[in-house]
Here is the input.
Amino acid sequence: MEGKTHIVGGIAAGALYLSTGGTIENDTMFFASCIAGSLIPDICSPTSTIGRMIPLLDNLVSKAFGHRTITHSLLFLVAAFLLFRYTPWPAAFEFGIWLGMASHLFLDALTVRGIQFFWPFKIRVGLPLGIRTGGSFEKVFFSLLIMLVAYCGYHMYL
Ligand SMILES: [Zn+2]
Here is the structure.
């Protein structure tokens, strides 16, 4: 999926969490973290939003592991979870980042290309008839995510 879809996906995940009864002490920090987290897994892609911001890192990660492997895996989510357990950062930041990363993996798993969720096992998790990155179906999906965010926002704040 494209960066902008992931950003909206991260916001949607945060909005879903809050509108289904989840609580967090700092909404603004939470949503900012959801957005940042939603871009992190694509540090392995040179053409991604975050890959362009950190030019060397994307090359290192993609050369060492390949795209949509380690940063798109269960292992990565567990590692982040463990890291955050032992760091004193605010929950709104840690949970936001984690939720944003999880939303990224979920969205990429809906694509034709899929992800290697069980990396280092090379098992591809994706949809054979799923979304093609940058295709018209992704645009429709992007609009649906925006509507979901609007719907959740309406229920949370109005
Ligand atoms: Zn990705």
